[in-house]
Amino acid sequence: MLLAIDSGNTNVVFAVYDGDTLRASWRAATNPKRTADEYAVWLGQLLASVGLERADIDATIIANVVPEASFNLVGLCGRYFASEPLIIGRPNCELGIGIDVDMPAQNVGADRIANAVAARDRYPVPVMVVDFGTSTNFDIVNRAENYCGGVIAPGPNLSMVALQMAAAQLPRVSIERPASVVGRATVPAMQSGVFWG
């Protein structure tokens, strides 16, 4: 089985795949100081909760956009899963798509590449992927099956926090789909702006 690790700016997600079948997934807040040992204890308990053991994992892959987290995630794979992980963006990781951007090693996050590979795998090209995370990413795979760039915008939570911080009378609100696009009070107007924006 494969343990896939997606280490983003806000969350790190662990998913276990048996072939193409997702067996389980879990998320934790991203904390670059969390050690491989801490991850191992946490993951060991979660694997057991779905009837799996660490020994069931025979391969690992990491998509990481938080450089400070790399050491501990790679250590987790090596020490606790006896696996040298594939790391998206490194030469040992064959993607199955081309990367057609300026300075790809410096300008494309592993999360965006992973999304592009998954989209190309599941849909006909050209295809656009929209990922709502810390940032909202719009990424394109062209007809030649090359990742060719995209757009990065503030994510919904970041937008909501920025509104609340920059405007003295705007409260912090949860992101929800409002009953109407046109808000008839401050909170639904903010929710509409972030949800529909």
Write a structural description.
It contains six helices and nine strands; from the N terminus they run E-E-E-H-E-H-E-E-H-H-E-E-E-H-H. It is α/β, with parallel strands linked by helices and 197 residues long. The chain folds into three domains: 2-87, ATPase, nucleotide binding domain (Nucleotidyltransferase, domain 5), CATH 3.30.420; 98-154, no CATH class; 156-196, no CATH class. Helix 1 (36-49) crosses helix 2 and helix 5 packs antiparallel against helix 6 (186-196). The longest helix is centred in the first third of the chain and has 14 residues, at 36-49. The mean pLDDT is 93.
Topology:
Elements lengths: L1 E6 L3 E8 L2 E9 L6 H14 L9 E6 L5 H12 L4 E2 L10 E2 L4 H4 L2 H13 L4 E6 L2 E7 L4 E9 L1 H11 L19 H11 L1
Parallel strand pairs: 1-4, 4-5, 6-9
Antiparallel strand pairs: 1-2, 2-3, 7-8, 8-9
Helix pairs in contact: 1-2, 5-6
